[in-house]
């Protein structure tokens, strides 16, 4: 079986079946697809699994192409599967209704709510949430460089209100910020402040070191993630490193991860919880251990690859 993953973003990278680690101009979904490829290649019956971009095309006949964005089905591929793991400003349900008419052979969702809307319209698909690549995200010895009281790893893409609600309360502590927070990224006033303290983008290996070293890891999601009830990768990657998280309130996370993550409404509530848990390392460690075990049992890239392979076989049969 030859499997492809297609993103709509051009890349300076050319992925190989071995899926080695690269640096360069690459977006998060391409990295995640690469992790799935590496795990798929360990499954008997998979001959190739590669990530493709608009400037890197398949050299072999593909049995299935998994579209990570709203790229159109490819006629020369046996089966095309749409993996909806992003949301749309105009309304994800509105865009989904349009995409349902374009001829995909299968659908994958990381939002259970959006999958249910899809099924109510008479279509089929599966729920396949994100997961941690535990080859990269795993517990490490603390690195003194990253032993912050509080850290946040992520780009400035959540909007000004949510940034002020969840990031600003942490700035009175020994706070580490990583990601693209330059004033040219957006035109919000907070960029002038956060752009100065951000240490810039880091690799996934560096992120794993941060998650293994900091006392508290902040997580907050876009408003669409709350509405559509979808967990971002930071939940799983931080927990895979035995990191202690304080997160905004995503409904499914509150149900499934109540013993693994502490939840906050932001603002003063964040300050109270940061103060409380900074002085209670034993409680932090209990949450972190629970989160680590959750990932190992339920949310590894290896497990997701096997679930994906089973669905591909169903589509091809």
Compact description:
The chain is an alpha/beta fold and 317 residues long. The chain contains 12 helices and 11 strands. Strands 2-1-3-4-5-6 form a 6-stranded parallel β-sheet. It has a 5-stranded parallel β-sheet with strand order 8-7-9-10-11, with helices on both faces.
Describe this structure in words.
With 317 residues, this protein is α/β, with parallel strands linked by helices. The protein has 12 helices and 11 strands. The strands form 2 sheets. It has a 6-stranded parallel β-sheet with strand order 2-1-3-4-5-6. It has a 5-stranded parallel β-sheet with strand order 8-7-9-10-11, with helices on both faces. Helix 1 (28-40) crosses helix 12 (301-316). The radius of gyration is 20 Å and the shape is globular.
Beta-strand portion reads: 5-15%
Q: Name the average pLDDT.
A: 91
The biggest beta sheet, please? 6 strands, parallel
Number of helices: 12
Q: How many DSSP-defined strands?
A: 11
CATH class of the largest domain: Alpha Beta
| Separation of the first and last Cα atoms | 12 Å
The shape is globular
Helix content range: 25-40%
For the largest beta sheet, what order do the strands appear in spatially? 2-1-3-4-5-6
Secondary-structure-based class equals alpha/beta
What fold name goes in the CATH topology slot of the largest domain? Rossmann fold
CATH superfamily annotation of the largest domain: Glycogen Phosphorylase B
Low-confidence stretches: 12-26
Order of helices and strands: EHEEEHEHEEHEHHEHHEHEHHH
Tally of distinct domains: 2
CATH A-level architecture of the largest domain: 3-Layer(aba) Sandwich
Gyration radius, in Å: 20 Å
